[in-house]
UniProtKB/TrEMBL annotation:
This is Single-stranded DNA-binding replication protein A, large (70 kD) subunit. It comes from the Archaea. Residues 56-129 form the Single-stranded DNA binding protein Ssb-like OB fold domain. Pfam families: OB_Ssb-like. Keywords: DNA-binding. InterPro entries: NA-bd_OB-fold, OB_Ssb-like. It comes from Cenarchaeum symbiosum (strain A). One of its GO terms (molecular function) is DNA binding.
Length: 132
């Protein structure tokens, strides 16, 4: 049984040991990860797995960090068949995507700022361009 990418009970594989067993477990976990849509993502807080198309990517701006220094940030919108959600891109992720790219975000999180829900990759999340 798998829950949000973590094994929560033992899996039995008979005589399999070592790398082969680990490969099968990793593949099982990867394929059991469920993806949500934009409307459901707006009601989630963390562990958001979603796919969609980048639309309306804005201009990059520089903001001050709480710890001192500055960082680049850019807002875009992630669109799927149910709607769209604001996507906040930070630092190196800004140049990774462009308008029209189809992306997959895993382990993302949502945040509400000035009354608008936005999706972010976060420290432990990943963003992957599926096709451009």
């Amino acid at each position: 049984m798998v829950q949000r990418g973590r094994v929560i009970c033992r899996l039995r594989f008979g005589g399999l040991y070592g790398a082969k067993k680990n490969f099968i477990i990793a593949r099982f976990i990867r394929h059991s990860m469920s993806f949500t849509n934009t409307e459901d993502a707006k009601n989630m807080r963390s562990d958001v797995n979603i796919e969609g198309e980048i639309v309306n990517k804005g201009e990059t701006r520089t903001v001050n960090k709480r710890s001192g220094g500055t960082i680049d940030v850019c807002d875009a919108y992630l669109k799927d068949d149910r709607g769209e959600i604001k996507l906040t891109l930070w630092a190196e992720d800004i140049n990774l995507v462009k308008n029209g790219d189809r992306v997959k975000i895993t382990k993302g999180y949502t945040n509400t700022f000035k009354g608008e829900v936005s999706l972010g990759k976060g420290k432990f999340g990943q963003i992957e361009v599926i096709n451009s």
